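Suppose you are handed only these lines of text.
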Amino acid sequence: MELAHILNHLGEDRENYYNAVSGPIFQNSIFCFKDVAAMRDGIKKELEAPFYTRGYNPTVGTLRKKLAALEGAEDALVFASGSAAIAAGIMSVVKNGDHVVCVNKPYTWTKVLLSEYLPKYGVTTTFVDGTQLANFEKAIQKNTKLIYLESPNSITFELQDIEAVAKLARSKGITTMIDNSYSSPLAQNPISMGIDIVAHSGSKYLGGHSDIVAGVLCSSHKRIHEIMSKEFMTLGAIISPNDAWLMIRGIRTLELRVKRSAESAEKVISFLEQHPKVEKVLHPFSKQNPQLDLAKKQMKHGSGLLSILIKAEKPSQIESFSNALKYFLLTCSWGGYESLVFPMVGIPSTAENPNPNPWNLVRLYIGLEDPEVIIQDLKQALEKV
Ligand SMILES: *Cc1c(COP(=O)(O)O)cnc(C)c1O
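From them, the structure of the protein bound to pyridoxal-5'-phosphate can be written out as follows.
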């Protein structure tokens, strides 16, 4: 399906909505019926047609069609956050007594779910260095039901060979799931590589304007229906119709935004790679990445998210650098219109919860500003180190 068709037309059903070019927001919880027979019929179809918004809402329905098509999936579900989507996806696969193999540096709250929460229900996880396929093979047990990937992760960007892991899992009847937030559906489509469930944080590139928190799961009709009739309806972490509409609005420009952010990042990376105060640039498509060939094999391009290790003697120099940036806002997250800086020295690190990343690591997100402006800003801030 053409990207232009997905973004501009798929699922709009304009003829049903007065041919409104930008579709309506169905800001309502309930839909009523003309008689009892119609109601009985409507309740039977509560997961596919308007009855109660937790199950189905037309605005969310439009968004689901677009997201599924973007990932080359049969169906998609949208959640109140990326974490809610990830939790529902994982919990749909495992039960008491099951085992999960997960990459060793997934998103923070994915790690908490697997290492602290699910053990309460008898589900255990082995975390592995996902850069080597053999580590997955070694970690698989008789009761392994799920292999969970995040390629790349969003701080240090290690990759997994998605196709190889999917093949290994298939041969053993193990379900695979991946957090594909970093790449967005434009740069990497794991379903085409054999992955069963793809998760996204909709709060990043998909929303694209730092104004919503949302999450997405893409998979087969069968699996999406199963998740919907269990985790989705019972845990109830749905997106609001208004936020769904904002995501539809956001993805109208997904191609433009991701392209601009990724292309600007390439320029920024070239600048940083030869800067004397930068020890290392971390990004899947950096010349310094030992997994560059794998990145080229499974990703169409990089994204605007990267990290640098700064040559500094003490944390205060990293603070001076971060404070000196004028165009980069100091905060977490990424994927919006604005450049962001997220230094590890800004994250509270305690004895029981130590930050596993080097203190001189600074994550940068390259927004939609003129790349020359961004480079000049980085240049003057690096002088403060
Ligand atoms: C932000 C993020 C999440 C969590 O998404 P929320 O929408 O914040 O719940 C998960 N994975 C990655 C890679 C992320 O960047």
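What can we learn from it? The mean pLDDT is 97. The longest strand covers residues 144-150.
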